[in-house]
Amino acid sequence: MRLFKTVHDFDYSWHTVSAAQWQKYPNPDCPHVQHVDVLDSSVDPETGVLRIERLISVDQKAPTLILRAMGASSTQYVREVALIDPKTKTMTLSSKNLTLSNILSCEESITYTQHPTIPEKTLFSQQATISAGSAVSRMASMIEDWSVKRFQQNALLGRDAFSKVLERFVVLAEAKEEAAATSGSK
Amino acid sequence: MSSSIGSECTDLKQKYDTCFNKWYSEKFLKGDTTPECEDLFKDYKACVMVALKEKQIDTLLADARKESPFPPPSSSSNSEA
After folding, report:
1. Mean of the pLDDT values across residues A79-103?
2. Structural domain count of chain B
3. Is residue B27 part of a domain?
4. Cβ A18 vs Cβ B29: under 8 Å
5. Which residues touch A14 (CB under 8 Å, ≥6 apart)?
6. Each residue of B18-60: pLDDT tens digit?
7. Distance (Å, whole) CA B46 – CA A52
8. Which of the ends of chain A has fewer CB neighbours closer than 10 A, N or C?
């Protein structure tokens, strides 16, 4: 599992930053993002928090070897849920990959909050947890199991083989001693 | 504005996006949470769901929603569970 974290200050108000977030794509600096679709949009009547669920289509260009081995295309999908609370001026975006999840899991959490002392600034924090998926873990377990078994087999072979060497060694050593004793006693 | 996963849905999406962006800045951020773009969203979403089904992403999505609701949508949501 790998963790990634970064923080940054934007010199714009939280209102501006949160509104601009919806117009981030298409972006020539992010050519990997191909499409963005809104799947759900609703305001919680009790809290006034807006929840938006989106599907982001990404052309990831992962190493071809990996893609071919997994039979995957280079287009992957990410599901994101955003929560926007205009009262606390907090915007949280949580996302996780939808495809290739048995190979890799990438969970990301981004928050935009109004700066505690400078209202014209917005604090940005981004965290990601990246870990190998269950298929890879299973393969890792299989490789380990196989390796341990093979190691045990080889260890047994090695021990038996060495035992035979020791027997011959002892026999030869005893024969030499006898020969020396016999020739010495003559 | 970004295109849709279903190329035939991009027009509907952009109509919805225009409405949403206006509502978000002029109403929602100013404290008025009355939804305004629901009809446009309905048409756009119906189109996207067809595209998702064609690409077989609908089952992946349903599983992901069960596994990580993130938190779950409120009862007044537009989505189907």
Report:
1. 92
2. 1
3. yes
4. yes
5. A89, A91, A112, A113, A114, A119, A122
6. 999 999 999 999 999 999 999 999 999 999 999 999 999 999 9
7. 16
8. C
B81 touches chain A (CB under 8 A): no
Residue B72 maps to a domain: no
Does B80 reside within a domain? no
Residues of chain A whose C-beta is under 8 A from some C-beta in B?
15, 18-19, 22-23, 25-26, 33-46, 48, 50-51, 53, 55, 57, 77, 79, 81, 83-84, 86, 94, 96, 98-99
Q: To probe the interface with A, which of B1, B4, B5 has the most A CB atoms within 10 Å?
A: B5
CB–CB of A43 and B35 under 8 A?
A: yes
Residue A8 has pLDDT above 50, yes or no: yes
How many whole angstroms separate alpha carbon A93 and alpha carbon A105? 17
- B38 versus B71: the higher-pLDDT residue is B38
CB A61 within 8 A of CB B20: no
Tokens 């509502």 belong to residue:
B23
The 3-state secondary structure of chain B, one letter per residue: CCECCCHHHHHHHHHHHHHHHHHHHHCHHHCCCCCCCHHHHHHHHHHHHHHHHHCCCHHHHHHHHHHCCCCCCCCCCCCCC
Alpha-carbon distance B44 to B51, whole Å?
11
Which residue did the predictor score with more confidence, B10 or A158?
A: B10
Q: State the number of CA atoms in the 13 A half-sphere of A51 facing the CB.
A: 20
What pLDDT is stored for residue A151 in this prediction? 81
Residue B15 counted as domain residue = yes
Q: Which residues pair with A62 in a beta bridge?
A: none
Model's pTM, two decimal places?
Answer: 0.77
pLDDT of residue A120: 94
